[in-house]
Amino acid sequence: MRILITGGAGCLGSNLIEHWLPQGHDILAIDNFATGKREVLPPVPRLEVREGSVADVPLLERAFSEFRPDVVIHSAAAYKDPADWREDASTNVTGAINVARASEKAGVRRLVNFQTALCYGRPRQVPVPIDHPVAPFTSYGISKTSGEQYLMMGSVPTVSLRLANITGPRLAIGPIPTFFKRLQAGQKCFCSDTVRDFLDMSDFISLVDMTVKEGAPIGIYNVSTGEGHSIKEVFDEVVAYVGAKLDQPVPIVPPGGDDVRAMVLDPSATKKAFGWEARIGFKDTIRRQLDWYRSHGVSDVHSHLAAPRIPA
Ligand SMILES: NC(=O)c1ccc[n+]([C@@H]2O[C@H](COP(=O)([O-])OP(=O)(O)OC[C@H]3O[C@@H](n4cnc5c(N)ncnc54)[C@H](O)[C@@H]3O)[C@@H](O)[C@H]2O)c1
To answer: What is the C-alpha separation between 120 and 133, in angstroms, rounded?
Structure first.
């Protein structure tokens, strides 16, 4: 297959590239390196990397017409500065429109988009079913929801995967890298009083493999174990893993104004459509992530939340 991946230098994009290259696919990654890093992509003949933004129509159209992709994975997203609404709108809305239009023009067979669970806002029901209304309230959530809606209006068969917290190589967001880095440095932590679902990269990739197959279902799907775990449970796993000795219990703080107390996605419609379900349980998922940090270290940790920040 010829696969074009926007945001290919990011966590999910680079893991998919690592998975697909040995299978003999030709890949073109487009990335502006806002949060991704060029050096994670190997200099090999079947992988081309172009630096640029999905907001840049001429760059995108040139890439699509020269590469002629069969499949497009839209993984680029802006989120690192919650106050930078213009950047979020430019990448997540205009960028999605540009990808949808360029895909139509190039006769792409299938388009796969990655969506944040923040599209559901503060859900009325947890686990959140796929037909729950969208109600985003952050710049990242609002812009990604709008982007998804444009993508789904396009004429290319499109799948949008609404994702749990995917863990795996190069994860640089969320509580696991934060706790690992701080506990190893002997720094204090706190846990927000929230619940999340965590999904191992191998489970995520096994579903993406199903979505790019000829004739696979299209539409919008939740991708999750369906199981919620508190951030304190994650903290406890990291404490046990690094063997940290705590002189007092970790503070549990209320979620920040732009956070959501419980977000767990219901994957039952995904299971029905694809016959897919997660195979790796919570403790193994966290342990596999910590094994990776132990051998590779933690890079900069990004967040799409404005608050709360961990005190020094
Ligand atoms: N990782 C998760 O658990 C998770 C959960 C929900 C949704 N998602 C979605 O999955 C996708 C990938 O997320 P990720 O975790 O790999 O994040 P990431 O930050 O590692 O990857 C995003 C990539 O997009 C690139 N990028 C940003 N703006 C761009 C632009 N204008 N043009 C081209 N490239 C641009 C970044 O440099 C980065 O390499 C995103 O769309 C995100 O919203 C991820």
So the answer is: 7
